[in-house]
Queue: 2 jobs
Job 1
Amino acid sequence: MFFGKYGGVIVKKQFAVIGLGRFGGSICRTLSEQGAEVLAIDSDEERVNEFTPIATHAVIADSTDESVLKSLGLRNFDHVIVAIGDNIHASILTTLILKELGVKKVTAKAQNDYHEKVLRKIGADHVIHPERDMGVRIANSITSTSVLDYLELSDKHSIVEVIAGRKMDGKSLSDLDVRANYGVNIVAIKEHGRINVSPRADQTVHDGDILIIIGSDQDIDRFKKQLLDNE
Ligand code: ATP
């Protein structure tokens, strides 16, 4: 618990990362760098030693042992990330115990589609499939020359960064009326390195501007085909 600038109490979110391989390790490192409270757990002593100077606490523990997870007080954590990949049995059992303990939010890493299905069935709130998700993301940005980056929000919605071309050049957002015409929203425009978040309707788009758009994949596809060059 911390006292904020104006005297109020700031309660930091508490995270636990179980499994400190490349994936879990990277999550643990990043959360810690962002100043979050992180409990790092792994059954491998060497991995735990590596994270002792990085995480708030690092402990050697077998996460498939319910009594261990209870004694670590995991039920009080805001978000637990299960980053065990290869040992599917351990990943499933750990996720199940965490949900039974009443952990509010559990994110689990899946090795394959069946693993993902089981994790969802037993109550994982979010399932990540890093290799597949990254593959989709990269494929989406390389199949289209005007797409710079892509972030999947759900299996049907995304945020995409695209380059405006000649078809949009000199037109204002109200001229383009992309929400009515395509069902997508332009949430930000980057021009000469400056970003304008929530642009006004009278803002003009120029060839080469970077647009950040949000919408359903179907609508984004239509927008890309009809409004972007090189599509
Ligand atoms: P990555 O693909 O993220 O690099 P990895 O291949 O290094 O992962 P995984 O088998 O996916 O390793 O497991 C990640 C970590 O989870 C390992 O450090 C492993 O020791 C740990 N781990 C596996 N089972 C358990 C368990 N039951 N309790 C705690 N930690 C575990």
Job 2
Amino acid sequence: MMNDIKKIGVLTSGGDSPGMNAAIRAVVRSSIYENKEVFGICRGYRGLINGEIEQMHSHSVSNIIQRGGTILKSARSMEFMEYEGRQKAHENLIKHGIDALIVIGGDGTFTGANIFMDEFDYPIIGLPGTIDNDLYGTDFTIGYDTAINTVMEAVDKIRDTADSHERLFIIEVMGRDAGFIALRSGIATGAEKILIPESTTYIENLFRLLQQDRKKNKTSGIIIVAEGDDSGGAIEVAKKINEKFEDFETRISILGHIQRGGSPTAMDRFRASIMGYAAVQAILEGQRGIMVGIVDKDIAYTPFEKSIKHHQSINPVLLEISRILS
Ligand code: F6P
């Protein structure tokens, strides 16, 4: 069922992620292919409230597929959390005659979209743009693959110096509420221990494992800790290890926002392109209130509420495997 949508808006919101540009490009070019006008909204919901809206053309998205960040800029808007802010945003959409919106972001973006949709009976489709991979309804979010590759490259480098100096490195990666970055990058780098928010960190267990490793003649090691882990992060973990083992030489490395930038991997560009196309198709089919994802290689549609509330769950077996292999 095709509907009478003529103008589509697109924005990026929340923490940026590599591949957002590929998604914007796919949305713009798919919309134009379908003879729809497409409008870029700058600075996420904040820009929507302030009326930062411009028509985009095919050439507006030339030469961006390989670039990290987002050409539309991103922001976290406090004003959009208030009804008055959302009302202004709605007025701007009406003023420009924009009939539907595609929002690229994470759980905060979809939470806002869901409220807005209900309040103003307005069609919105979401694309999962976050390095955290913490949304239900897609195997991989846009940006996750690039982020774990960035972490892998950094940890490989740290491993060299850890080995030379026989040191134990505690490396903190992003993930306020989710351990997906830590888990996969930890397995990919052979980390001796991975600490994530989804499983309780018992410091005594960590001590025991470190002692076992010493007995195996390991003289260096890598602990990957997600920033949201209940241990308190890399600084806290290092402090506790130093208190317990005087002979361990530890160093801390907090990778930080390096994980959010850089040219997207082929998989992130591919997924962003396919999902961006599918988002436009979904809008034209009259769908709304859903996030577009890819599950088992197929396009999947998941209601916002479900994508936000049911975070992907971590498979505990992966933690066990990482330990066996390290
Ligand atoms: O949501 C993505 C994310 O990168 C988290 O992993 C991290 O905790 C947060 O954003 C950092 O946000 P900001 O850039 O606002 O400091």
